[in-house]
Structures are given as C-alpha cells and as structure tokens.
Amino acid sequence: MSAPPTYSLESTDNGNFLLNLGPQHPGTHGVLRVVLQMDGEYILAADPVLGYGHRMQEKIAENMTYLQALPYVCRMDYLGAMSYSLAWVCAVEKLCSFEVPERAVHVRVMACELNRIASHLLWWGAYLLDLGAFTPFLQAFADREQILDLLEYITGSRLTYCYFRFGGLAADVDDVFLRRVEDFVTGFRQRLPRYHDLVTGNVIFHHRSKDVGVILPFEAAGYGVTGPCLRGSGFAYDVRKCEPYSGYDRFEFAVPAEQEGDCLARYNVRMAEMEQSLAIIEQAVATIPDGPYRARVPRVIRPPAGEVAMAVETPRGELVIFMVSDGSTRPCRVKFRVPSFANLSIFARLARGQLLADALAILGSLDMVIPEVDR
Amino acid sequence: MSISPVTIVCYLLGISAVVGLNAVILVWLERKVAGHMHFRYGPMEVGPHGLLQTLADGIKLLGKQFLVPDAADRPLFLLAPVVSLVPIFVAMVPLPLGETLQAWELNIGLLLVVALGLLNTLGILLAGWGSNNKYALLGGSRAVAQILAYKIPLLLCILTIIMMAGSYSLRQIALAQKDGWYILYQPLLFIIYIVTITLETNRSPFDFSEAESELVAGFHIEYSAMGFSLFFLAEYSYMFIAAALASILFLGGWQGPFLPGPVWSLLKLYGIIFLLMWFRWTFPRLRIDQMLHLGWKILLPLALVNFLVTAGVLAL
Amino acid sequence: MNGYRYLAGIVTGSVSLLKGMRVTFANMVSRPHTVQWPRQTAPLPARFRGHIRMLADEETGFPRCFACGSCARICPSACITVQGRKPGDRKKKVAVRFLLDFTKCSLCGLCVESCPARALAFSRDYALAGYRDTEFRTMDLLEGLASPFQF
Amino acid sequence: MNSPLATALARIGIDYRPRVPAVGLRCSLHILPEQIRSLARSLAGEGFFIETVTAEDMPEQNRMDGIYLFNHYEGDMRLLVRVTVSRSRPHLPSIGRIFPGAVWHERETAEMFGITFDGCPDSRNLLLPEEATFHPLRKDFTGV
Fold first, then answer.
1. Is the ipTM here above 0.90?
2. Are C76 and A157 a contacting pair at CB < 8 A?
3. What domains can you pick out in chain A, each with its CATH number?
C-alpha cells in the first residue's frame, strides 16, 4: 500500500534528517528531486517530486495537427525517440487505416531496434556511473556513437529524429546504409564480450546489484511496471510479442526474462535484449524488399471520429498513446501512458529501508528519462 | 641533534616543491590515463599534450573566490584543508628516495609516516562537520567508519615487513632488500597492502567519502577555490607517500640496476600510482558495508595468517 | 566447505577484477575515438538537418520562394514569417521577407518537406554562436540573395 | 473464453463483449463511478496491471469521462473503462489502495482535470506547482 510519505521538516530530534536528492544531483539523471528522510545512511521514506521539466505535452498535442505534433512526441524520450515517433504515426495510421509499404516497415523496425541498443548502451554506462565506475560510460558511448552516426545518416539528426511519416518514412535508405548496419551488427557482436568482461563478471558489480531493489511480481502489477524492469521480475511481457505492431511478428526474437527481480536481473535482461535487437536488425536487413518507402496519404490528415490505443515497446517499457479523434484535423484528446512514469512510481517503495548508495543503484536500474516522466 | 634554521627552510622548500610538482604531474597523469581508457585524448591544449593544463587550472582556482557557507562552522571549515595537507610535509621527511636523497634519517621513520597518515581522516571529518552540509557530513562519517577496517590490516602488513627487516627505519628496510625484494617473498602481502592504500587514499573503488554519484563530492562539496585545491593537493600527496612507502617496503626502494637511485624510486612509485589510477578507472564503487566486510573478513584474516606464517618461518 | 567457498570467492573475485583491468588497459592503448575539434571535424552526413536556408532560382538569382506560406502554417513552433509581393511583370509572388526565429525552431524539417517550390534546404552550419539572442530570433534567410525589388 | 478478462468481469457481473482489437483495445466498458472499485479489485485479483488513469473533458456535452486503462501481463487484454462524472463537481472513487501505482496517475488526473479522487492516499499536485489550482487539460482552459 502506498501511504503518503510521512516525512516532516520538524522530526529531526530523533536523529532523522531530510536529504534533498536533486533536482541537481548526478544520480537522478535529470531534474528529478527525491526528498529522502534518512536515519544515518538508511532511507526511512522517499518522496519523488516531479514536474520540474513539465511541458504539458498532451495539451500541446491537442492544439496541433497530427503532423505538427510529430516532432514534439520525440522530445519526451530523447533516448528512444524512434519508438515514440513510431507510436504516434502508428496510432494515426490505425485511426485512418493507412497501409504502410513493406520497405518502410523494415526500415522502421531497423531504426527502432538501433535506437533501442543505443538507449540500452547509454543506460549501461549511466548505471555504472551511478555505481561509481566511469569508464563504462564512455566505452558505451564509443559504440553508441556509431549507432547515432547510422541514424544521422538516414534521418539527419542524432537524437530527436522525426523520421517516420504517416504511411512511411521521410526519406528512403540506400544500400550504403544497409551495409553499414550489417558492419555495425558484426562489429558490435564482437565487442559485446568486452562489456561482459568489464562489468557483468565483475565481483564488485555483483555485490552492488544482486538482491538490491527487488521488484516482486505482484508489486509490478500494482504499479504497472513494464519493460526490462518487469522482465527482470519474471514476466516475459513485451508488446512486440504480445500485440505485434509494425511487422514485429515477421521477425524471430526471444523475450529475455529473469526471475530474481533485482538490479542484476534488470541488467541481465537489458544485456540480453541488445543481442535480440541485433538479431532483429540482421533479419530486417536481410529481408528488406525494394519498393516505395512511403504510401500516398492525404496531405491533410483528418481521421474519422473514434478512439485508438497504440502500444509500443520503447526501450524503457510499454508506451500507450491513447488518442480520441473527433474527425477534425487535431486530436481531441491525447494521453501518453509513458513507461518511465509507472516505473518510477515504484521507486519510493523500493527505496524504503535501503542505504543511500543502494537507492541510487535502484534509481539507476529503473532507467527512467525524466522529461518522459514529466512530459 | 641540532639543525640550523637554514637547513629547515631548505628542506621545507624542497618538500613543497615535491608536493607541488607531484600534484601537477599526477593530475595531468590521471586525466591522461582516464582519457585514454575512455578512448579520449585527455587534455591536449595547454602545453605539449596538455602538460601545463594543471598549472592553468591551478592559477584559475587561485583566482576564484573562496566561499564559506553562512551556516558553516567557520574555524573548522578553514582548518580542515590545512589539517589535511600539513602532515604531508612532515611525513615526507623520513622518506628515502635515493641512497642519499632523504631529508632526515629517522630510526622510527615508518611509524611516523603511518601515524601521520591517520590525520588525513581527521581533515575529512573536520571538513564534513564544519561544512554544515548533509552530504559533507555523510562523507565525513563514512571516512571515520572505514578507518579501522583498513588501518589494522595495513599495520599488520607493515609489522610483517618490520619483522623481516628488523628495523623501523625506512632506509634500513630498503637496504635489507638488497638481495631480493620483499614482493618476491610476500606477494599476497603486497596485494593486501595495495588494497589498503587504495582505501587510505580514498581512491575508487573505495572513494566513499567523496562518492561522486551518491554524495556528489562528499566532504569537499562546499569547498571552492584554494580550499578545494588544498584537498586536491593533499589527496595526490597522500598517493605519493603511500606509493613511496610501497616501493620502499616491497620493491627495494631506490635500488635497481643501471639507473641512478632516485630514478628507480620514481619509476616504482609512479608505477604503483598508475596501478591506483588503473583501479579507479576500471572498478565500480563498493558499498560502505561491503568495504567493512572486505576489511574485517578478508584483509584482516589474510594479513594475520600471513603475519603468523612469516613469523613461524623466520623463527625456524 | 565454507572455508573452501570463502577462498574460492576471493580467487574468482580477483580474477574478475583482473579481467576488467585487461579491458581498460586494452582501451588505453587503442586509438582514441574523439577528434580534436575545431582542428579536426567529424564528417557531416548529407542529410544533416541544420537551420533552414533559402535557395535561389538558377535563372534569376531571386529567392525561389513565392510566399505561399505553407511552411509557416505547418511549422509546429510558429517560427517562420513570410511576406511576398508580386513584381509587375510576373504571375507569381516573390518573397520579400523571410524570417526564421531560430530560438524556437526544433529542427524537425517539416517546412522543408512541405515547400511546394522546393525553396528551402538545410544549411550545414552547426557551430552557431552569437552575442545576443536577437541574432537568432530574426534570422533573415533572404540575406545575400538578389531581389526583384531592389532599385 | 476463460481469459482472465472474462473471469474478472464475470465476477462482478459485467458482460464480456470483446471488441476487434483493431484499435488496440480488447474490451471497452462504460460503468458507473460506484462500480470502479469492485472492478479494480476483481482485475487486481486476476493479475491485471494498471496502465493509466486519465480523463477526457467534453464541455459541449457538459460531461467529463474518467478513463482507466488496464492490461494483463499475458498480453493483448487491454481494457478501457470510461466513467462519466459531472463536469461541475467531478468526483471519482480512488483505486489507489488497490493499485498503488494508480496514486500517481490519479494525482495527475486530479490536477489536470480538477477531478477529486475520494480516498486517494495522496492528493498533492504531482506535475504542476504545489500551489497551482488551475486545471490545464480542461478544454476551456486558456492559460494562467
């Protein structure tokens, strides 16, 4: 049960004190503030304070045409922007029943999976940074850089891509890109053992992440935890498998899951997921057909009245865009159900009774993007 | 024994030069090592390969305003960096860096250096308390919590060496290794010693009182300008002393073929410092309770067993 | 048994640490991935999305833009201002004012895509710096282009 | 037929009428505010997880819908629940004690739409400033 946090500024006579973790703290990965009530190094209660980066994305989307809102959607999760674009265009395509050419589907999957690896790599580095190791961060960046170069090659942008369009893509990909993707997949497969040598096998890392921040399966459902955090707790729930979208049912991949539910399990899930993403990319490159990259769609998008829920598996979990259309050129109601928001809501529960150092390890292992939480 | 004031001033100047130069080189080296381990170059702009970068940074720090928080305990806040730095000047006195390169041959030199090493923790505690900042206080209390866990194994290491060399004098200990460095007889002890000096110098994976990702900068979170650079100076000087001690206790000090003594000294010393840097840029940080576990349950028993076995072998 | 596990733990733990150190050492002796900007620069891809710029008509040298305003309408951040005038001898208008508020632009590229005259393109400037924000608040994209209205 | 969704709905006496999931929803319900707690309890018992709680403002019909999205970890069982409340004095029962994760969603909905969630363990603003009393996602909101 989530009781309201019971800290108070006055209760310092028994040796407890309040600690403001953030909004400017390297461990919170952005403008998140967590008010901690501490007893020495132990956390008695944690209360995340959100909204420092709140931009009212839902209202913005309601005041814009479907196409205009597209660039804004990427801004929520700047590390997994492809998945967000995909969710937005797929939601509109579902509403309007547009068909997407096969070539575009393949490129979309490829781009999203590349983006997923990039996001996981950044998480990998940032998590180790939370644990006090600096080198993994830049080692991950060295490989992530190659992915960003690849995505920049096709989209022209490095983080907020705005590459998908209703009915296809903004621009086609060429053979140079496909060759480079193939090279990257081979090269990255060879470099993955280094990641395991440096961190996965490391005894200090094991001590820091094993049995820390255990999310129990029933708690996960209560808080709506999704994504790798959930799969670390034993559920193999992945939107790509459960409700295949954008042609994911055409590719073979496994959904890695671990039983323990601790930080190490979440770590292992993400590491395994990167390998699965590589497999998906490989298949997409091998089977990409020729043909148009964009279907002919009306210039002005005016979907029929109705409602749609589009679920997408972003690197952080399940994103649902719930959209109500009233038949005009602007959406009537848009709700972004973002994964980080739900994943972060369990943090207060996990942090209770932990050491400060562990709380930061837990926070890091949840892999949230604060602009996504705040929207 | 009487020493003229002029000699004392000369020694002080010499030691200051070593402390300053060492910090300049080590900060540069640290940034270079970190850079290259991260596929970067590190500083490249000021001087050849950025050699003068530290100097530029130092001048910049000198020009900055030294802020004392309103709520800080002013005397303690001001005292802390000094308490951290001053013992170093004394601890450098009995260190032999060459056959004749030694400020003062002291028959209890080793004890002096080890005892003064404890004062570093006092400096951290004062800074943590005096800053009146919760992060700083947590950093200071962590430093105190860890001190026993590493000092006892460290002393056991040193005791074993004293037993083997039969002297407290650093010079005599180095000379006793003429025929074979102690690292050959005591490889395990060397490893224990390296771990304990990593702890003593507050270096990652044991940088609990600083803990960038948890306590932001821990005990020196409130320090700016010169206060901050004094802590910096102290940290690198403690590294120098700890590494010098390691080279004397285990690697025969200045002794080595072909090259002159001081060169050998510095080579060994900076080799060990490189090892510490290598640790820092490779490992994640332990948790404080895991460090205590390491100190009490692993280092201490191993050092004790090693001590007893050595004593037994020596008695035979 | 416990004692064995205790010692084995120490040994395997140390081995794992050495493995990590091998990786960082290999990193250290490998070639850095960064470039020393600004002396070296990383290559810009062909599709690089910088701020927009106005293309000139090959024949006349006038801006290609005929001030239809579709870019200004589609822009999600409303950062484009266009005004056009009809020169006496021609059917189509020609832009006389095209201002970009780069402080609001999110570089999405929808304007370039929507332009019926293909008059907009992405520039390749990325290291923009200025002394005040007004330099970017009203960037005149017609600067340096010929105009039929100059006397 | 024996899906967790059907079981959960049958337990509280609601007919399970599956929809073609072309719009991402397996089932869509319109219930009364009094029913939401028993529905949530029943869903929680069947292992459903909370996706979100939000609302939709319809000023021209003078109504406001509370919207709940639930899903199941076995996949593809998304359930949309709409609960109509009065626009002038919107009240909804809180399910924060059944799904602890709903508390944040309810706090957000409360500040954005001005819906009061009765019995919500925490009623502070979540994303808006602490002292904010405006409700930006209402259609008639034009700015502070």
1. no
2. no
3. 57-374 (1.10.645.10)
